[in-house]
Amino acid sequence: MTSPVASQPRRRGVCPGVLVPMQVGDGFLLRVRVPAGVLPADHARRIAELGDRYGNGLIDLSQRGNLQLRGIAADGLEPVTEALRGMGYVSGDAASEAVRNLLCSPTAGLDRTAPMDVQGVARTLDARLAEDAALHRLPPKFGWLVCGGGIGHLADSSTDVRFDPVDGERFQVSLGGTLAKAAPLGFCRAEDVADVASALGRAFSELRATLPEPPRRMAGLVAGMGTDPFRTRLSVLISPLSPGERIKVRGTHLMDLFGSAEPPHPNLLPGGEKGSQSGKVVAFPFGRLTAATLAALASACAEIRITPWRALILVAPSKDAEAVAHTHGAILSHNDRRLKLTACSGAGGCDVGTTDTHATALAIAERAGPLLDPVRMVHVSGCAKGCAHPAIADVTLTARDGVYDVALNAKPGDASPYTGLSPADAVARVADLLTEEFTGA
């Protein structure tokens, strides 16, 4: 097999896991699916040890609330897998692991403003996904979401099947998208979530099989068929919606406390401010931290929650938790301009990348300084695929063969008026464009 052209994106068609490690530029990548996003401190320390001993010591936080161990050597796959299995993070087989794409509110059980603590619901659903063989036929990346509301609301997270709280006993079931865009199907009881999910998974597989070009995501199927075929199959489990009835997000939540930034940029909840008082939120540039950092954080709290915003919540933090996080380079202020940046792994971390995307992004933050304040997002992509953010950003740099194309309000790979720029010239161009855009100079 020949290697792809360096600047061309590779469509792999599968999601990595522990049982399906993915070989990338710095070795094997293992995605650890953590039920309900709850990582006990002792498990976090053990995972950090595994990443340090068998990998390159780098750990990524994914937008789906998972941990990714990087740079695992081939001879380290078995011991890492067995250690993770002993902690309960490995499914029975690759098929049962792949379907466990479940996102849960990271503040479940911590936030008194939330209608319900959904940890139990999420864990029950996670187990059902692994056990129900009929669901293992679902396409890769087919996702599920259990939201508890409150400050950790997942309204802006897009998925295939979502359960959003109506009150302390019921969920609204919606299909394909964010809370605002998903098609509402009806209401279900909390104790029926796993059964509803199982029925919806079966219905999706059956309905898509009737089409000449089966869609791989729920939004595509609903766009073509509507929701009535699903309602018919789930009439016993779901209560119908009244005309025009659907829930809306009320109150303040983690993502809009200090603005309207979108994932993967977390708005942070400083201690002593609104919301849960039992957790400290810490973020990291590009959602990447070291094994040493994870171990240090685990020693400064009782439990770690993994968020879909590439940030961590330290539950019951020690008095020195903030100092520990600061020492290890964590982002502790919502005003930190590094939150404006997103970037993929780039050269060294991906076999397609040809530039040091992280270094370029950080150079932009240093060069542009306050010019970044009105900007929502600067995206540095190692290729046209745009793994870190495939959508439009205020400023997008797309790498190809060691150089960048720079564009405003564009997606990776879009046509650009500024092409073939060296990393240094691309940084300078971005600073000039921001000056022209926001100061008129």
What would you note in describing this structure?
- Among the domains are: 97-233, 2-Layer Sandwich (Sulfite Reductase Hemoprotein, domain 1), CATH 3.30.413; 338-439, Sulfite Reductase Hemoprotein, domain 1.
- It has helices at 41-54, 77-86, 94-98, 119-131, 193-208, 218-225, 228-233, 291-298, 321-327, 357-368, 423-439, and strands at residues 22-24, 27-32, 38-40, 58-61, 67-72, 102-104, 144-146, 159-165, 170-177, 183-189, 279-283, 288-290, 303-306, 311-315, 341-343, 378-381, 393-400, 403-410, 418-421.
- Helix 4 (119-131) packs across helix 5.
- The protein contains eleven helices and 19 strands.
- The strands form four sheets. It has a five-stranded antiparallel beta sheet with strand order 1-2-5-4-12.
- Strand 1 (22-24) and strand 2 (27-32) form a beta hairpin.
- The protein is of the alpha+beta class.
- The N and C termini lie far apart (52 Å).
